[in-house]
Amino acid sequence: MQLAIREWRAMGKWRTPLKAVAFGGLLGVTGPFGSQNAFAPAVRYPLWMVLALVGFGAAAVAERVLPSTSPGRRKATRFIAVAAVSAVPVTFFVAWAFSVVQPGRTYSPVQMLALFPFVALIQLLIVLVISLDDRTAVVTTMEPPAAAPEYPPELLSKLPAPLRRDILALEADDHYVRVHTLHGSALILMRLADAAALIDSRLGLRVHRSWWIARDGVRTLERAPGRTVARMIDGTAVPISRTYLPAARTILTD
Fold it and tell me: Model pTM?
């Protein structure tokens, strides 16, 4: 019972139970197993809605319990297996439910065996409904992965080709910016504020009026007498001013 409850939670809140109830209503209209003539609508519809809920739950449990098939195998084989396995407990539940609404009715072993294929057929329909629901959920929830941030071409185009990667920091130098990389440094004609505004914030942050540092270029944050510095992977110590220290601690220690 606890396993069935966990499976209901995994199947997705209310959408699947509502589909189970709707499926049960459809079975109430068709009236399988002679229920069309045996029961009044006030009994037949609630009976099949309950049976459908149990059937959906049993199919979900069987789906989890059975090992997954390899990509090369046909999905139809798995659908049939899930339907057959889930039909075993559901057959007993159907027999019990019919005995409740028809006091005195019993099923012999032979009758139970005869009932099983019909229950399995209904379970196969349930498995197909669940599989269609899963495919819809995957399509609707799938989102394209976020593109990795890149340095703007307005900045990279000003650098020599060998220095257009592995950027560590930008340092203000009058009206210029010195771009520090793992492969050397170069001066470009651009204000630090303008360069920092162009760069995606996921790549780094301003830590001083004269410095911007790349997030991936920081080895550690170090406390020095009266100040904090960012130790870059090339050994450079970049000062972090008090204004930018809270943001630097939050971003660089994630």
Answer: 0.46
